[in-house]
Write a structure and sequence with these properties.
Blueprint (H helix, E strand, L loop, with lengths): L4 E7 L5 H9 L2 E8 L2 E9 H8 L9 E5 L2 E12 L6 E8 L6 E10 L5 H4 L3 E5 L3 E6 L8 E4 L8 E3 L23 E7 L1
Parallel strand pairs: 1-4, 2-6, 7-10
Antiparallel strand pairs: 1-3, 2-3, 4-5, 5-6, 7-9, 8-12, 11-12
Length: 192
């Protein structure tokens, strides 16, 4: 993991739609932390800090450090609610991580060598990417920022599936354990 993310906030007791609206007017964002066999905790984070962190793709698939009322917790972003028109974050759900238990996360796929793909460069094909992320399961220490998919050696008529992704050690795709029918395509090279 290349980046580290830290946010500092406070716990909150005032809950509900009206309370959340008042927080947003005060440039604060309501959020909740749950998991690791501890009770859920309602928190407030500075809106500008959250917006700044969300600019990085890595924020969505990293272990984050939240300091709430002086207490440090390791978490991952599990859900983010955005305004339907303004696309501003409205609420976040964070999951506490425990080094002893696997976590399930969606991580982005980065497709490389698109310009040098044999099927495109020599055979007049085009690339269709059908998945931008994939769900993985791993221990927190093994959580990758993204998964790389190399398109360089593909010919026209070739389809890549989830099972073709080279996974780092300690990382698995739970969907593949459900059988061949769940090995969905992620990209293909077709005749243009």
């Amino acid at each position: 993991m290349s980046a580290t993310f830290s946010l500092t906030g406070t716990s909150r007791t005032d809950e509900g739609k009206g309370a959340s609206r008042r927080l947003r007017h005060a440039q604060q964002m309501p959020a909740v932390i749950y998991g690791a066999a501890k009770p859920a905790q309602s928190i407030t984070l500075p809106f500008k800090d959250v917006v700044k962190a969300l600019e990085s793709e890595a924020f969505y698939s990293h272990i984050l450090t939240l300091t709430i009322d002086g207490q440090v917790q390791q978490v991952v972003l599990k859900a983010l609610q955005r305004h339907p028109v303004k696309n501003q974050p409205l609420h976040a759900d964070f999951l506490r991580v425990d080094a002893e238990h696997k976590i399930t996360m969606r991580v982005p796929l980065h497709f490389i060598n698109l310009e040098t793909c044999i099927g495109v460069k020599s055979e007049g094909g085009a690339i269709a990417i059908t998945a931008s992320d994939v769900e993985i399961a791993c221990y927190p220490k093994d959580l990758p920022e993204f998964l790389t998919v190399d398109m360089g050696a593909l010919h026209v008529g070739t389809t890549l599936h989830i099972s073709d992704i080279k996974l780092p050690e300690g990382v698995e795709v739970p969907q593949l354990s459900q059988g061949h029918d769940y090995d969905q395509p992620i990209a293909n090279v077709y005749k243009a």
